[in-house]
Amino acid sequence: MSLRSRVALGLVVPVAIVVSYALWSANAASPYFPPLDVILTRFRELWLFDLVSSDVLPSLKNLGLGLLLAVIAGIPCGAILGRIRWMGEMFGPLLDFWRSVPPIMLIPPLVLILGIEDSAKVTIIAVGSFFPVCVATADGMRQADPTLVDAARAMRLGPLKTMVDIYLRAGSPAILGGIQIGLQAAFVLMVASEMLAAYRGIGYLTMQAQVTFDSVTMWAGTLLLALLGFTANAVFVAIRNRVLSWHTGMRVSRASS
Amino acid sequence: MSDTSQPRLALTDLSKTYDGSTPVLDGISLTVGAGEFFSIVGPSGAGKTTLLRCLTGLMRPTDGQVTLDGIPLSEPSPKMSLVFQEYTRSLMPWASIGKNVALPLRARGVPRAERTSRVAKVLAEVGLSGVEAKYPWQLSGGMQQRVAIARALVTEPEVLVMDEPFASVDAQTRMDLEDLTRRLQQDHRMTIVLVTHDIDEAVYLSDQIAVLSKNPARLVEVVDVPLGAERDQIHTREMSTFADLRGRILRTIRDVQTQPV
Amino acid sequence: MSEATSTLLWRPTGGVKLRQVGLAAAGFVVWLGLWQWMTTTGPMADTDGLPTASRTLSSTLELAGSSQLWSSLGTTLWLVAIALAFAVVAGIAAGVAMGFSPVVSALLDPISQVLRPIPAVVWLPLLLMVLGPAPELGIAMGFLGGVWAVLVQAQVGVRDIDPVILETSRAMCLPRRLTLSTIVLPSAVPYFATGIRISAAFILMLVIGAGILGGAPGLGQLILVAQQTGDPARVFGLVLWSGLLGLTFNSILTAGEALLRQHRGGR
Ligand SMILES: Nc1ncnc2c1ncn2[C@@H]1O[C@H](COP(=O)(O)OP(=O)(O)OP(=O)(O)O)[C@@H](O)[C@H]1O
Ligand SMILES: [Mg+2]
């Protein structure tokens, strides 16, 4: 199939959705489904760029900070659990348990302890995204080829260098996978903690709009959240593909030989 | 060959039994003199890799001792380098060739500028100039093997230990790599311990050959190879001494294998 | 969305040994001991909202005897099952069609790639507005979060079929319908299983999330009420229950998937 026909076909569904929504919202005049241009106007009023510094940037800062803390804590913890056998056997199951708690479940107890300030949000995000990073790192420790580990020993690479240069690098596909899940959890927690308990933020504004039947603002908020969720993932994937270019290259060359 | 000084490498009564299985190595004693090309031959699965792992200090023998220059060895020594049987897997797929070869230098804290120049020099020596920026998986098997050899040589080891290094390359590459190894040994006055199951290769390259039996591996005999220092893929292999030695070792191995245990 | 969402770290090899069970139990004891110490004499002794470990444990046990917990668990699992059924049907249908037909793939791939990475919580206010705090909210959220994993796996499963087998069926002049039902679908079954496992984990998370954020019935609603009535021990007890539920759920799904793959001799 030619590229042009692929693009044409790819546009069919989005265009159909937009057109049918526009037609329908214009005729039905349902309070839930305001016309598209009204939503877009509100989107521009709110997010370009009046509320960016008061409601968007603080949320994103919490997200970034929380995820960063989770990565800083999760990688060493995972490395210890993955490399020291009795530690893994002792705390692996505990970790499995905590990772099985749906991240959103962590919000009520943590809000009870920490309140609803930004620092509390950072902690909630950090705790929720810590588990996937830690588990993935522990799992990634198994990816190092034993021959390579032997080679490192034979050349007397110290324990720290072996960890950084061999184990963490060999495990980086798994670890980055864990960070990606961590990012998803972080995003969910950022939005959910604002919806549940906050006095500002996109999640808060969107939920408030829903509660007060301001469907236009709610749609504008939803649109921004969706956009941010998509972008966050896309940025991460771009970074990951750069870091892991060796991995893709290797797989392609192995597959073709 | 040179019995004057103490041996560079000495194994005394080396035995190894993996957890809960029958012994793999049984009372192996041998000595390797400085500057010698020493080969170990034995059937597949005999325990050659196990022996190498013990003599490089990667693994503790169940019994017996390894000494390097008279000092007991319990962990890998900086004087020794190792080329693995699974050389492809011993390279880091995420690092360029330059970084791969430089790794042992980084382990020793050699400054970056010196690392770069030494890596370039050793890569030239193995006939791979200018591949520093490539990744291992972009090279052919024979080239990857040269990289593994370069990485072993970059620290200028006194002893180079190689585990079936030429088993999985084509015949022409194999001859090239054999000659390369022999030349490097002569140039650097290195001691080389080479494991192989190819008798021809062992005879062609070595000054001495140890023959192992299987189940468990015992030392059957050590054969001197009086073929001189200069070897040539065509002439050496045509010499009658070569044919005699080859026949003798093959016969020994066959006799060991057909003997009732 | 990655595989790692629901695989477990704890994978005892060669049968579970006493040593491993002992160490695992010791891990939990260390954690609870540390918690108890922190909240009684340690630095977090007077933290509002943080119950002691012993209070939490007794509330967890208390919950085991309450019909409220069990009916909430039942509701949650029921909603998960319904959402999963929708996600599996829709995901497999769309995924197989996309894997099998280049036209369908060109039609749906772009939209799927745009929607897939968007976390489903984003849709919560919208769905809450339309559906209200009803069971349907949990089902809709679960569906939106869970359908993608099935879809992607189905798509990959169909695309990964050994081309030689497809050529063979072409050589035998099998009609496309027959190729689909006798070759494509059966060989993609292990992928469906993986997709269902990953998807179910997401759905459980989202059904509970819909309860906490939107008041949909089930475990999430229960914890929301406990938080609003200011009962920290109950809140923490419910968190432990949700962990237990998640762990059991994932273990069963992982075991089921492994069994299926083994049975089929697949990878
Ligand atoms: N880590 C291990 N644990 C248990 N048994 C092992 C281990 N490594 C090797 N063995 C066993 O020891 C024996 C010798 O293995 P080894 O790899 O040393 O043989 P080899 O002579 O190098 O074989 P090859 O010629 O195939 O390389 C084999 O029977 C093997 O199964
Ligand atoms: Mg071997």
From TrEMBL, chain A:
Classification via CDD domains: TM_PBP2
Gene Ontology annotations of biological process type: transmembrane transport
GO cellular component, one term: plasma membrane
Cell location: Cell membrane
Pfam families, per the entry: BPD_transp_1
Transmembrane feature ranges: 63-84, 175-199, 219-239
Limits of the ABC transmembrane type-1 domain: 56-236
InterPro entries xref list: MetI-like, MetI-like_sf
Major localisation: membrane
Keyword Nucleus: no
Keywords of the record: Cell membrane, Membrane, Transmembrane, Transmembrane helix, Transport
Family per similarity comment: Belongs to the binding-protein-dependent transport system permease family.
Protein name per its UniProtKB record: ABC transporter permease subunit
From TrEMBL, chain B:
Record has Transport as a keyword: yes
Key words, A-Z: ATP-binding, Nucleotide-binding, Transport
Source organism superkingdom: Bacteria
Domain ABC transporter: 9-239
Pfam families linked: ABC_tran
Molecular function as annotated in GO: ATP binding; ATP hydrolysis activity
PANTHER family according to UniProt: ALIPHATIC SULFONATES IMPORT ATP-BINDING PROTEIN SSUB (PTHR42788:SF13), TAURINE IMPORT ATP-BINDING PROTEIN-RELATED (PTHR42788)
Record-given protein name: ABC transporter ATP-binding protein
Natural source organism: Nocardioides albidus
UniProtKB/TrEMBL annotation, chain C:
Subcellular location(s) per record: Cell membrane
CDD domains, A to Z: TM_PBP2
Domain of life of the organism encoding this protein: Bacteria
SUPFAM superfamilies: MetI-like
Keyword annotations of the record: Cell membrane, Membrane, Transmembrane, Transmembrane helix, Transport
Membrane topology designation: Multi-pass membrane protein
Main location: membrane
Domain ABC transmembrane type-1: 73-257
Membrane-spanning ranges: 21-38, 77-107, 137-158, 202-226, 238-260
Keyword Transmembrane helix: yes
InterPro entries, per database record: MetI-like, MetI-like_sf
GO cellular component: plasma membrane
Record Pfam families: BPD_transp_1
A biological process from GO: transmembrane transport
Family: Belongs to the binding-protein-dependent transport system permease family.
The protein's name in its UniProt record: ABC transporter permease
Organism of derivation: Nocardioides albidus
